[in-house]
Write a structure and sequence with these properties.
The structure holds two protein chains of two kinds. By secondary structure, chain A is an alpha/beta fold. Chain A is built from eight helices and five strands; from the N terminus they run βααβααβααβαβα. Chain A is globular and about 40 Å long. By secondary structure, chain B is an alpha+beta fold. The chains are: A alpha/beta, B alpha+beta. The interface between A and B is medium-sized, with 38 and 31 residues.
């Protein structure tokens, strides 16, 4: 791959991928986690997204584990950080199209000039459809030629 | 497994033999952890964050399974977490 793809990985990708990895199941979500770990795709994050990863892990495990996981994701993937302040400025432009709780994530993809927004949330994918970046499921993402 | 003898420098630095450094890809800047086993025994371990992250994912995955979540339930769970983080 010549240039690394810039991707937004929704929280459901992390959790479903983790479940599949623990069962040694070769799934699309587990495949995406492996791409993240191996540095073959570039993650795009905001503090809000990292807080979501943290909150989900905290509810399932505990606070210490959630902090450890968040630290490792950042340390290993070396993501592109999009400041929340920058997103906030652009949010009014898209507020009528995207549900408010998804808006920060959508805008961070716009700011980062993302290649892909990857999610299993059908509603989020449908409402985020645009001409700037592609909104895809893990299966659609991995069907790209370079990952076959 | 083999043991090698090295001498400690003025500021507590030790030199890991070059053959071990080459084999285990211990380059300048590589992070290692020194584990104190007590009674003068130390254990040096190369930190591999990639392995650690995969382990963390697996631990999380096992907990998710124990709690009885499947893919659809996880998607709903994430929607709720998103709403709560947004409203916090």
């Amino acid at each position: 791959m010549s240039t690394m793809l810039k991707c937004f990985a929704d929280t459901n990708i992390i959790l479903i991928g983790a479940l599949d990895l623990s069962e040694n199941k070769i799934s699309d979500e587990a495949g995406i986690l492996n791409l993240i770990v191996e540095g073959e795709i570039k993650l795009i994050v905001t503090i809000q997204l990292l807080n979501e990863y943290h909150e989900a892990a905290k509810r399932l495990m505990d606070k210490d584990f959630a902090g450890w996981l968040r630290y490792l994701i950042v340390d290993v993937s070396k993501p592109i950080f999009i400041p929340d302040d920058v997103c906030k400025e652009l949010e009014p432009k898209f507020a009528s199209l995207i549900p408010k709780e998804d808006l920060r994530h959508f805008v961070c993809c716009v700011v980062a000039e993302a290649d892909y927004l990857i999610s299993n949330n059908g509603e989020f994918l449908k409402k985020s459809k645009n001409d700037i970046f592609r909104c895809v499921t893990p299966k659609e993402f991995l069907s790209k030629e370079e990952f076959k | 497994m083999k043991a090698v003898t090295v001498r400690m420098g003025e500021k507590g630095q030790i030199t890991i033999p070059v053959d071990i450094r080459k084999r285990d890809k211990l380059d300048k800047g590589t992070q290692v952890e020194v584990v104190d086993l007590g009674e003068g025994s130390l254990f040096i371990n190369k930190i591999d964050r990639k392995k650690e992250l995969l382990l963390a994912f697996r631990i999380l995955g096992r907990r998710i399974k124990e709690k009885g979540y499947n893919k659809d339930k996880l998607i709903d769970f994430c929607r709720k977490v998103r709403r709560d983080v947004y409203n916090a």
